[in-house]
Amino acid sequence: MSTEVRVPTLGESVTEATVATWFKKPGDSVAVDEMLCELETDKVTVEVPSPAAGTLGDIVAAEGETVGVDALLATISEGGEASTEKAAPAKEEVKSSEATDDKISGQIEVKVPSLGESVTEATVGSWFKKVGDSVAADEVIAELETDKVSVEVPAPQAGVIASILVGEGETVGAGGTLALLSGDAAGARTVAADDSADATPPAASSAGKDVEHAPSAKKLMAEKGLTPDQVQGTGRDGRIMKEDVQNAKAPAAAASAASIVTAAPAPAATPRAPVPADDAAREERVKMTRLRQTIARRLKEAQNTAAMLTTYNEVDMSAVMALRKQYKDEFEKKHGVRLGFMSFFTKACVHALREVPEVNAEIDGTDVVYKNFVHMGVAAGTPTGLVVPVIRDADQMSFAAIEKAISEKGKRARDGKLSMAEMQGGTFTISNGGVYGSLMSSPILNPPQSGILGMHKIQDRPVVVNGEIVIRPMMYLALSYDHRIVDGKGAVTFLVRVKEALEDPQRLLMDL
Asked: Which of 132, 238, 377, 421 could form a disulfide bond with 429, CB atoms 3.0-4.6 angstroms apart?
């Protein structure tokens, strides 16, 4: 009996991929979920796991070939010794095979749940149970961290944790096996003795091993005049991928830059200065979560890519505060949600984006993509870091609908329940640093968006109105924008329109 290995789903709008590397050759034994090959798309690198244990048969799509979604890649002949083999150190080959037979028989695999579009791996953040613990069906037993969200792993059925195959801090691919669940405590105790060997797979060593770089990367290196030594590979075993070449500087450009400016190494590449022993003893070193690493990377990318500039203004919040005070009780009674400031700012931004559409656009190569809709990102701070849930079609929503959406997504963000889809596709973002007491700041763009509005603390300040000094509740506004697509005139006009709409909310009703 043979099993087909096919191209998995590649993500929204991605219809084909290039076979980058085969990790196995025909005749090799493979275990369930063992990585067979790696595919490259324009956006991500996708690993293809084995759907069954057995022996790899014919490879239909060779390295460098382009394949579509669900295309046949290879076949696997099931049966034989391969069906009971898992990757293990050579010195424990027999023991591992026997232990694997023990575990598979009558036990349930705890698999990595769906991680979302384009996410191919996750890091085990925490195990809430240990080997030998009893669990109920659907009880959360572990938490995974991806680049964007945390994912809880429930027990597929009631039983006992027989073994944990992936420890905290280790990375596991989509669909991988995290643990084995036994329906009987005795079975768990039998397997527990071998956990230390099974739960820690041998570290892959690339020493002395030839690394085959991705075909698309080789082609691009040739076009840019680069050698592998000049590119930092981020793929498996240091393999160079297409995006690595795209991020590398051509020799001429690098030499030109070096001749103009002799700069110190980037902070990220600079080794940490020596720390006195008494200080080091009082320090605590904690590995950054994948979410925090992604936040850091994306914010730095925004600074490196966009021509980012910020313009400021201030708004008198008297009218909005009076309107809110007058109607907040009736609003909450009718709509079941409190009337906050975010719906006013969302409406004001939607109004301004109609007049200055480039703030709602993005750059794609040499094209400008204008959006005839507004998917509003609302930045939210959570215990694990900053996330930006998206309110889709905010331009079509009422005040009540906006408030309900913001309230619901804010709660899901704080609870770590946001899905990948809920954080994708934003066209403009609002960030409210005022809730933390910030008086003024310059927000950083959320790529590929071209604009972000920063709200700040409302503070009573003396201002001049009709020739008299009066005390008014004032807020500083900051619009950071990509100067490559948005001119200064457009940015200032946008911010003035937001100011006008907030100081005279009736303008929103009159569409002025």
From this structure: 377
